[in-house]
Amino acid sequence: xxxxxxxxxIREDRDLTQKQIGExxxxxxxxxxxxxxxxxxxxxxxxxRLCRFYNLSAxxxxxxxxxxxxxx
Length: 72
Description:
The relative contact order is 0.18. The chain has helices at 3-13, 18-24, 29-37, 44-54, 58-61. The protein is 58% helix and 0% strand. The chain has 5 helices and no strands. It has one domain: 434 Repressor (Amino-terminal Domain). The protein is globular, with a radius of gyration of 11 Å. The model has no long low-confidence stretch (mean pLDDT 96). By secondary structure, it is an all-alpha fold.
């Protein structure tokens, strides 16, 4: 699974909007939408923010593992 599909699925599973996640990343809803749609890349700083926000490992968020591990 690629990271775009994974971060979209996590967001939707938690009933969050793109606008809410955009605010976490200090981006507009459109800016975050571009990441999910593949028109922009997820920056490392944004990945770190998402890991902290969701309390999930980066390996899980970017699709390297299917094991949903919390941050240590």
